[in-house]
Specification:
The chain contains seven helices and 20 strands. The protein is an alpha+beta fold. It has two domains: about 1-65, no CATH class; about 75-290, Fumarylacetoacetate hydrolase, domain 2, CATH 3.90.850. The strands form three sheets. Strands 1, 2, 3, 4, 5, 6, 7, 8, 11, 12, 14, 15 and 18 form a 13-stranded mixed beta sheet that branches. The chain has a five-stranded mixed beta sheet with strand order 9-20-19-16-17.
């Protein structure tokens, strides 16, 4: 199933996407609620949602919202594509680099991705993101895909000078409104196992910035879940980002190639969709809010 959380005429809901048409699941089944959490936690409700008929609208009329409004954890892999590791000057690790993002750092596809006042070094990172379905601890690699609800698109916007101020990447990865998610979620059974073999690309207009395939990940979906669940209990609705392929802005030659206000960055993953974000300067955003 392909799902979109968003608003129409000021009313937020969960929509099943069939081609260019979206069925309002929240109107037909109020227990669905206004984000994916209820569907994630109930197989029976998912089964109902797959067959329901009800009010439909064009997908283009739905303004995207975050698929999960309040994820318990937002966990991210770094250095998960060999060529990206090389372009950053890192050694190829035998254990994945991991970091976490705050809720304030993420936003829905279509919302402004904010370049902060303190830096012009705003970079892009096209990433596959999974949404945890069934939680657990010490999940085996063999069972891991049973714990995936679905997949979406993520732009891990990174402020590079702040990322490199310390050995920990937390500042550069957690500026407010720099991580775009969505708009679509595709359930695990409707993509290849582990979302392997999907083209992943970032671009600004006709300029292709990154182009790779999810099969090139060092640690795939199942391995990542197994590794992360060794040290933390995964919970329904947790978000896990799976790293970016080569072509990021800081490594461009000649370069670097930073995102600039007025541009629109698009991240596309085959079979899932396009996450588009206009770039806005923080000071301009503040003035517009006054």
């Amino acid at each position: 199933m392909k799902i979109l959380v968003g608003t129409v005429a000021g009313q937020r809901g969960v929509f099943r996407v069939d081609g260019d048409v979206a069925t309002n699941l929240t109107e037909a089944l109020p227990q669905v609620g206004t984000d994916l959490q209820a569907l994630i936690e109930s197989d029976a409700l998912m089964a109902q949602a797959a067959d329901v008929t009800g009010e439909t609208v064009p997908v283009s009329e739905v303004t995207p919202a975050l698929p999960v409004e309040a994820p318990g954890k937002i966990m991210c892999l770094g250095l998960n594509y060999i060529e990206h590791i090389k372009e950053g000057g890192y050694d190829i690790p035998d254990y994945p680099a991991m970091f976490m993002r705050t809720r304030q750092s993420i936003m829905a596809a279509g919302e402004a991705l904010v370049r902060p006042n303190c830096s012009e070094k705003l970079d892009y990172e096209a990433e596959l993101m999974l949404i945890v379905g069934k939680g657990g601890r010490h999940i085996s690699e063999a069972d891991a895909l049973d714990h995936v609800f679905g997949y979406t698109v993520f732009n891990d916007g990174s402020v590079r000078d702040y990322q490199r101020k310390t050995h920990q990447w937390t500042p550069g990865k957690n500026f407010d409104q720099t991580g775009a998610i969505g708009p679509f979620v595709v359930t695990e059974g409707d993509l290849p196992d582990g979302a392997k073999g999907l083209k992943i690309e970032s671009r600004v207009g006709d300029e292709i910035l990154q182009s790779s395939n999810t099969s090139n990940m060092i640690w795939g979906v199942a391995q990542t879940i197994a590794i992360m669940s060794e040290f933390t209990t995964l919970e329904p609705g947790d978000l896990i980002a799976l790293g970016t392929p080569p072509g990021v802005g800081h490594a461009k030659k000649p370069g670097p190639r930073w995102l600039k206000p007025g541009e629109v960055i698009e991240i596309e993953i085959e079979g899932i969709g396009i996450c588009a974000s206009p770039i806005v300067d923080e000071s301009d955003l503040a003035q517009a809010a006054e």
